Amino acid sequence: MNLKSFRRRCLFLCLTFVVGLSALSARLIYLQVIKADDYAKMSDRVSIRKEILRANRGCIVDTNNQLIARNIPRALMALDKKLLMDTGPASLSLANLELRGSDEWNEWDARARDRNIRSRASRLKDEMPAEDIVQQHIEHVISTFARPLGMTREELRLCMQLDQEKKKYVVIKKDLSEDEAYKLKQLGREHSIVHAFHYEESQKRWYVMPEMASHIIGYTDHQSEGKAGIESRMNRYMAGHDGYVKNHRDKFDLLAVAKPQEISPPRHGLNIQLTLDMGLQAILEEELEAGLREFYAEKGSIVLMNPHTGEVLAMASYPSYNLNTREDVVKNGFDFATQAIYEPGSTFKVIAAAGALDKGLVSPQTEIFCHYGLYRNGSVRVPDHHPYGNLTVEQVLAKSSNPGAYKLALLLGRKNYYDYVSAFGFGKKTNIAMAGESAGVVRNTGNPTDFSRVSYGYAVSVTPLQVACAYSAIANGGRLMRPLLVKSIMANDGTVVMNYKPEPVRRVLKERTAMQMLKALATVVDIKGTAKRAKVEGYQVAGKTGTSKKLDFKNGGYLDGRYTVSFAGMMPAEKPAFVCVVVVDDPQTTEVKRYGGTIAAPIFAKVAKRVANRMGLKPTEPIEPKETTEPLAQTHH
């Protein structure tokens, strides 16, 4: 190619580029200037409304998949008074009312009805003053919706607050069911009243057994956020994430159906399966309330655990509250089982005995001189409820001797003793999946008197759950287990997302020591022990009673004649299937002496008998036939 041809080619390309650029510029000018008004008008005609699609909060079920808590769809109906008084929607509504009574109405299909309503509405605006259209429309709205809403016409009129001009948005009715909201929406469509009312969908938490396990389950607020118990602790799994849909509607085509243009589906929450058996929970709650009534007490707790896995099978606290109504939640929302701290008394004596046995310092049959009702050791004074003299280690537990427990603690030594207290989990939270758990109070002050008192369950504070965990360590061969309350997390299709397995915290005792303790604690329930009323026919029971004076937090010291009584038991004693701790606060009965053996032990017996039956435990001891006073049936030969 020569130079002349090359120049011609470059000139052609430049001209082509300029022409193309000019055409593009012209198109841009046309779109931005000439058609700008058309696009603006189109934008003004289109209304975009973003509607939230609520996520379902996950369900809560028990270990047998029995439903405990779920969400139910609800809706709120609100009135937009600005649209109510707009002649456009109002004329369509009146046209619908007029034509609905015509002979041709039933002959028209949906398209014909729509066309005729629009046509008649247009003429009405020419025939009637705007004020009359609006006023008749309001009366028609009231007539249409009053009865379906369960209101009189006057009640609905008052609810609409027509005299309050500044208030443009009014809630007509809350807590509508899904079916009720659908029927109201459909009624509005049939009468061409689709703009004045707005429906906000929501979710309401519903508890199937609202008065059972209230403290464990917890509740949600109006925004579906967990505020107590499992609802709070597992909120991040159950909450889910809301979605949305953006609807485009032609502002000037009032009968047109909104068209969804963008949809982001909600992500529903996961379901929580608990270790609770609601059948066992019912047993605990029934027997706890019956026991508190019988012994005139206002507060108490029962904890039932599988000692081998740490699973909380049931856990009852009283007083309680209704999860659906939440009446008295402030007054009764305190969970005795995990938040109440009390001086355990003699149930704490197992620490000294188990520690001394575990270190090989004594055997179950080693004799301890327990003095005769009072033991003095320098400045330390240890009283006893009975003058016993010599007792074996087993008998120290069976008779619940204070000096005996103190001497075992002395033999073990202060450091070793407090090491065992810590190893059994006292003074620390158990880390159960519940909010607000107490750690209890354990103080190694170095004071000899404090040390003596801790050895028999004073100057130390515990929770019922901590005691249940400690006794579970004895029952399962010496391992402290973390209490399990959540069994698994599941998707809506039943797929298990996460399983919670038994979690040993530490080994507390040698297996041999745990077996020795089980045998020793079985003697407590013997006829000569302090817990003979904890006996269950057909089974050998092991356990320990506890009685302690109530602290006077206001004035210091103890309250005169007021006690916290308890029993920590396990059954069958040979290989416990469950551990059950009963704590009764401040019984006022005068029919029996206020001891753990006379109040908490018989409550345990009633619970254990029913629990064994539900769990299908086979009797481990022969059941003696009951005597009958009925005459024997005569036989004829």
TrEMBL record:
Question: What are its GO cellular component terms?
Answer: plasma membrane
The answer to whether keyword Nucleus applies is: no
Question: Per the database record, which ranges form the Penicillin-binding protein dimerisation domain?
Answer: 54-251
One GO biological-process annotation of the entry reads:
cell wall organization
Q: Name one GO molecular function term.
A: carboxypeptidase activity
Region labeled Disordered — which residues? Answer: 617-637
Keywords from the named record: Carboxypeptidase, Hydrolase, Membrane, Protease
Any one Pfam family here would be Transpeptidase
Write out the annotated subcellular location: Membrane
The answer to whether UniProt assigns keyword Electron transport to this entry is no
**Domain of life, per lineage:** Bacteria
Residues forming the Penicillin-binding protein transpeptidase domain are 300-608
PANTHER family reported for this sequence = PEPTIDOGLYCAN D,D-TRANSPEPTIDASE, PEPTIDOGLYCAN D,D-TRANSPEPTIDASE FTSI
Q: What protein does this entry describe?
A: Penicillin-binding protein 2
Source organism: Oceaniferula marina
